[in-house]
Amino acid sequence: MAAVDLSTHPGHLARRLQQAHYLLWNTMVSEEITSPQFAVLNTLVAEPGLDQRTVGERVGLDRSTIAEVISRLDRRGLLDKVRDPQDGRRSLLRPTEEGVRTHRRLTVRTARMNQVFLAPLSADERTVFFDLIQRVADAAEGLRHPAEPVAGRR
Amino acid sequence: MAAVDLSTHPGHLARRLQQAHYLLWNTMVSEEITSPQFAVLNTLVAEPGLDQRTVGERVGLDRSTIAEVISRLDRRGLLDKVRDPQDGRRSLLRPTEEGVRTHRRLTVRTARMNQVFLAPLSADERTVFFDLIQRVADAAEGLRHPAEPVAGRR
DNA sequence: GGAAAATACTCAGCGCACTGATTATTTCTG
DNA sequence: CAGAAATAATCAGTGCGCTGAGTATTTTCC
C-alpha cells in the first residue's frame, strides 16, 4: 500500500532505457569498446588535439570518469595522450591510426543498432523522442551549471 | 571528418538523461538513498515477502546488481532478509518499520523532483515522453528475453 | 616578482550494472 | 531413490559515474 507506479517516474524509465541500450550495444556493436568510449573517440575524430576536460564536456562526462575512459582507450592504443607544451596542466588527445579505423568500423554497426533500437517508433515519433529527451536533459543539466557567469550577473 | 552527431544517438541521449536525473535526485531527494534503492523499497512496500530474484525482475536489475542494492538496504536496516523455510535457495525480503517510513518520506520528495525534472514539457508531451521511452525500452528488453517459452514453441 | 586564485588532472571511496563461474538447494526423471 | 537438470544466490572481475581531497601548473593581481 502507498507504493507508487514507477512507470510514471522519468528516472526509472531513463535507467531502463539506458540498460536496454547497453545490452543491445554489447550484442550488436562491440564487447570491447563501450558506448561512452565510442563517444570520446567520435569527438576526437572530429576535433583532434582537444584536452581531456573539453572532451569530457563534449560527451557529458565529469573529470573523474573521462580520465578513466581515456586511460582505457590509451591502454588499448586507440588514442595518444601528450602533455601540452604550451600549458603543462593539459593533456592533449588525438586518435591513433587504429583509433580512427575502430571508429569507422563501429560507426557502421552503431547505425545498424540504432535502427533496431528505434524500430518500435515511426519516423515522426523518433523526431519527437529525440526532441523531448534532449529538452529534459538540457534543462536538468542547466540546473546543475547555474548559467555561465554572464556580464552583470551575480 | 566522418564523425557522427551524437544527438541523434538514442543511447547517448539515454545516458545523458539518466545522469541528469541522478544529479537532480542527489540534490532534491536524498544523498543516502539512491533511485534504484527507492525502487526496490517501493516494490517491497507493495509486495512484502518477495524473493530477491523477483524484486530484481520487477525493478529491472540483474541478479548481481540486485544483490548489492539489497545488501546496502539491509546494512542500513531498511529491510529484513530471511531464508525461505519452504525453499532454502530463496531469500525473502520485507521492509522494516524504518524502511516504510523512509519510503513514505522519499515518495513526497520524489514527486517534487519529478515536477522539476519534467518542467520543460507540457502535460501532453509528458504523456508522449513516457509512452515513447517505455515502448523503446520494452522492445529492447524483449530482444533480450527472447520470449517466454510458450507452449508449442522452440 | 611573489602570494593568491584559478585551472587541469589524479586519487580514494562509494554505488550501479553486466558477465561468467561457483555453491547450495530443490525438482525432475530414469 | 539416485543422478541430472534447474533454480537462487554469491563471488570475482570489468566498466561507468559521482564527490571530495590532493597535486601540479598557470594566471591574476597587489
TrEMBL record, chains A, B:
One of its GO terms (molecular function) is DNA-binding transcription factor activity. PROSITE patterns: HTH_MARR_2 (PS50995). SMART domains: HTH_MARR. It comes from the Bacteria. Residues 1-138 form the HTH marR-type domain. Gene3D superfamilies: Winged helix-like DNA-binding domain superfamily/Winged helix DNA-binding domain. SUPFAM superfamilies: Winged helix' DNA-binding domain. GO terms for biological process: response to stress. This is Transcriptional regulator.
